[in-house]
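Tokens help. One example:
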Amino acid sequence: MAPSLALLLLCQLALYTPVTSKKECGRPPLIDGMELEGHQRVYSPGDNVALSCKRGYTPTSGSRIIICTASGDWSESRLKCSTKSCSFPKALDHGDMEFVDIVYQSTINYTCHEGYTLQGASRVECLDDGQWSEPPPKCTPVTCGLPPIPKNGRMVYDRKFTGNTTVFGFGGTYECFPPLALIGNERGSCSTNGNWTEPPECKFVTCSAPTGINNGYMTINDKREHGFKQTVRYGCNIDYVLDGPVEIECLKTGNWSIKPVCRAPCKVGITRGRILYNGMKFWIKDFEPNKISHTDVILVYCMNKEKKCGYAVSTQCIDGKLKIPECFEEPSDFTYKWYYKSLPSEIAQC
């Protein structure tokens, strides 16, 4: 065989000889929290790599090694990486905290309530070692000095304290020495700006000479001015009822408190009939004296003509006025004298 022919046959056989090639693996896929040791881009079958967990993650189970198989796929990884957690934060006294989670890279924002100052970090982060970046802060109250005391006055504190410093919310009640009146805030306290609230003044206040009331009297006849907090008492004439306070007081405004009123009694305005008063029945001619006091209640009797029975209706004395119910019909003199047993008050009641 010629050498050129033999070479041609060898080339043709080479074209028909099957070629077997192995598939390569790319970089292995990584799930959250994992990382790869090394930076190789292509791997041959049989190559293996070691996986690890990133900072802030903890390996929980499974082998770290995966192998590139002949099919070009990586063997299944059994390594699990879980996010590290920090301790649950304690509640902040006199403050608030905002957070969504307490795992790695989570943050907490701290704020204090009005009147309190943040001591420490306002924002902390959960680190990769499971510890918070800063210790929890504290909310300390704003401080004030001693309260201003008005001239001729004093403050009665809510509680005892020592030293020359007070804290937010601490306070007391102002008082003026008699006969001076307190004008302004009755209470004072250490406020959010580190200052006390505006103190009042103690001033000399008088009220004009008190005046009398209709159908009544004062317990004193001294027609003079009265000082702050001084009082005057009132009473009513016989048969009149005192409506309001027995005593009035000179106020810090220089005016008297509201005076009472003497309310008038009422006369029962019927000539013939029977009434019910204080649980007892009276013929009006026997009701002596014909008078009831302010706010007293009497009952008169009306007739239910359809059912032919009687019923009692109440009415009240209001400052000398007593309205007789419209359903009441005063009988004639003849009926009242001779047929009184037929009156609504005497027949069967509805």
